[in-house]
Write a structure and sequence with these properties.
508 residues, 19% strand, five-stranded parallel β-sheet
C-alpha cells in the first residue's frame, strides 16, 4: 500500500494574530497544510475592518463594499476544491455605479463596454476610441501585473530584475504617475476622474500612485462589478466557515498583548493575564502596531524612524444610516465628485485638514438586496476619505456630518436628514482604537512609488518564525490583495519549513 505523504506543516502549531482577510486567508492555507492553527481576534467578530454592524433590522458592511477581481476569489476557494458559490451568491451590478458632479452633471456607468465607450465619446470627441486604447493597455497591465507582480511574490529589489519583469516594461509603466498616464488618453477632467476613481481602493491620489495601478480599470470595465448577497461580510463568513472545515480554531474577544520567542517556542500574552504557546506566529496586525504593542525592541520589523517616514493611505469618515423610504436616484454604488478634486487630495496628502470640497462615495446595497434593511427602508453608507491622523473630535465630526448630508441633498438630489432611523459613525479614532491602524488609516501603507512591491514590509519580518500578512505587505491594499497576501505568507512558512527540515536532515 502506498503511504500518504505527510502534510508539509504536520505537527506545527501556528498562532494567527488578527482575523482580517489576510489572517483568515493564511489560516486556511496553513490548516490545509496540516498545521494546528489558532486565530486570535480582539474584537467580537472576525473580519477586522471588513466587519458588520447589525441593528434594528439593518446590516452594514463596515469597510470594503466592492466585489472586484472575481477570479481572485475563485482561485482562492479553488485551492481547497471549493467555489465561491458554496458560501455566497453573486449578483452582477448594472449599472455598476453612478457619478454625481457638483456642477449638476451626472453619469450612469452601465455594465456594457460599448455603452461606456459612447458615454466617453459624449464628453470628448475621440474619447470613445481613446477609452478602447486605454482599456486594452489596462488589460495587458492587469494580466501581466497579476501574473508577474501579484501572484508572484517579489519581496526583494533584485526580484524586479527578473527577465519576466523586464519584459513587462512596456505594459507596466511603473515610473509615471496615474494622472500622467491617463492624460495621454483623454483631456476632459470628468473622464480622467472616471478612469482614476479606482485609486480610492488603494488609498492613493492620481498624483502619487504609479500608473501600474491603471490595471484596476480593467477590473472595473473589463471584469465587471459584482455584489455578494448579504454584503461583503458574506465573503468574510465564507472564509471563516472554510477555515472551520479545515480545523482552524477562532478565538474572538481575545487580545494578544505581546509576542516573545523564536521559531518553535513562541509565547503569546493574552489579554495581559494569560499565555499561549505556538511554534510559529502570523501577524495580521499592522506591522507598525506590532512593533509598538507586541514585539520586543530587538525583534521589531523596523526602527521608529522607518515608520515616521511612512506614507499612510487615507482614513475615512463613515456614516452608517438606516433610512426610512427610498433613496432614489442613488445607485448601489455612487460617487459625488467636485469637478476639480485637487483640493480634496491636497487636504489628505499635503495639508491634513477636513476637505473644503469633498469627493466621497455612497453605498446603498439595499437598492440590490432587500435583506439588508427592513421593508420600506434602505441601508446607506457614506464614506469620505480624510487625512490619516486628522483630529476628529465630536465637534469636528458633527460639523462635517451636517455638511456631507447637506452636500448629498444638493448634489445627488436625495435628502436623508429627516428620515434617519438608525445612525452610527466611524472615523480616524475608531480605526486607530479598534484596529490598531497607525494614524487611524483606514487602509494601510499607501501605494506610493516608494511603497510598492519590494519596498513594502516583507512577509518574513521580526524574529525568526514571525510572519506578516495583510494590506501593509505585498501585494497590498484591498480584499483580493489580502487573500493573495495570505497565500504568499503561507508559502513563505512552507518554504522555511522545507529548508529547516533539509538542514536538520543534513545535520543528522
Amino acid at each position: 500500500m502506498t503511504r500518504e505523504p505527510e502534510a508539509p506543516l504536520s505537527g506545527q502549531s501556528v498562532a494567527v494574530v488578527g482575523a482580517g482577510v489576510g489572517g483568515l486567508s493564511t489560516a486556511c492555507y496553513l490548516a490545509d497544510d496540516g498545521a494546528d492553527v489558532t486565530v486570535y481576534e480582539r474584537n467580537d467578530r472576525v473580519g477586522g475592518v471588513a466587519g458588520r454592524i447589525e441593528r434594528d433590522g439593518f446590516a452594514f458592511d463596515t469597510g470594503p463594499s466592492w466585489y472586484l477581481q472575481p477570479e481572485v476569489f475563485e482561485r482562492f476557494f479553488g485551492h481547497f476544491g471549493r467555489e465561491p458559490s458554496d458560501y455566497y451568491d453573486l449578483v452582477e451590478l448594472d449599472p455598476k455605479y453612478r457619478v454625481f458632479w457638483t456642477d449638476g452633471d451626472r453619469a450612469t456607468v452601465p455594465d456594457d463596454r460599448e455603452a461606456v465607450r459612447a458615454l466617453f465619446e459624449s464628453y470628448e470627441d475621440g474619447a470613445g476610441e481613446a477609452f478602447d486604447a486605454y482599456l486594452e493597455r489596462a488589460r495587458e497591465s492587469y494580466e501581466l501585473g497579476m501574473e508577474r507582480f501579484v501572484y508572484t511574490d517579489r519581496t526583494r529589489l533584485r526580484d524586479m530584475l527578473d527577465v519576466d519583469v523586464l519584459r513587462s516594461g512596456r505594459a507596466l509603466p511603473l515610473l509615471r504617475t496615474m494622472d500622467q498616464h491617463v492624460e495621454r488618453y483623454v483631456d476632459h477632467p470628468k473622464l480622467r476622474q472616471l478612469l482614476e476613481y479606482t485609486l480610492v481602493f488603494l488609498g492613493g491620489s492620481p498624483y502619487n500612485t504609479p500608473a501600474l495601478y491603471s490595471m484596476l480599470s480593467w477590473a472595473d470595465h473589463g471584469l465587471g462589478v459584482r455584489y455578494p448577497e448579504g454584503g461583503m461580510y458574506s465573503v468574510v463568513e465564507g472564509l471563516r466557515d472554510l477555515g472551520s472545515s479545515l480545523g482552524v480554531d477562532y478565538r474572538t474577544g481575545t487580545e494578544v498583548t505581546g509576542v516573545t520567542g523564536r521559531r518553535g517556542s513562541f509565547t503569546l500574552s493574552l489579554d495581559g493575564a494569560r499565555d499561549a504557546g505556538a511554534d510559529l506566529v502570523v501577524c495580521d496586525v499592522p506591522p507598525a502596531a506590532a512593533d509598538r504593542d507586541l514585539l520586543l525592541p530587538g525583534d521589531r520589523v523596523r526602527d521608529a524612524d522607518g515608520w515616521e517616514s511612512a506614507t499612510y493611505a487615507p482614513s475615512a469618515y463613515l456614516l452608517y444610516l438606516g433610512i426610512e423610504g427610498d433613496v432614489d436616484p442613488l445607485a448601489h454604488h455612487s460617487h459625488v465628485l467636485p469637478t476639480d478634486w485637487d483640493d480634496h487630495f491636497e487636504a489628505i496628502f499635503e495639508d491634513s485638514r477636513w476637505p473644503d470640497e469633498p469627493a466621497y462615495y455612497v453605498n446603498a446595497p439595499s437598492v440590490t438586496d432587500d435583506t439588508v434593511a427592513p421593508e420600506g427602508h434602505n441601508t446607506v453608507v457614506v464614506l469620505v476619505p480624510v487625512a490619516p491622523g486628522l483630529r476628529d473630535d465630536a465637534e469636528a465630526r458633527a460639523r462635517f456630518r451636517d455638511r456631507i448630508l447637506a452636500d448629498l441633498a444638493e448634489h445627488a438630489g436625495v435628502d436623508l436628514r429627516d428620515r434617519i432611523v438608525v445612525e452610527e459613525e466611524a472615523c480616524v479614532s475608531e480605526f486607530a482604537a479598534r484596529y490598531a491602524r497607525p494614524e487611524g488609516t483606514a487602509l494601510g501603507l499607501a501605494h506610493t512609488l516608494r511603497q510598492t512591491g519590494p519596498l513594502r514590509p516583507s512577509h518574513r519580518a521580526g524574529p525568526d518564525g514571525f510572519y506578516l500578512v495583510g494590506s501593509d505587505t505585498t501585494p497590498g491594499i484591498g480584499v483580493p490583495m489580502c487573500l493573495i497576501s495570505g497565500e504568499h505568507t503561507a508559502e513563505a512558512v512552507r518554504e522555511d519549513e522545507r529548508r529547516g527540515r533539509l538542514r536538520r536532515l543534513l545535520a543528522d
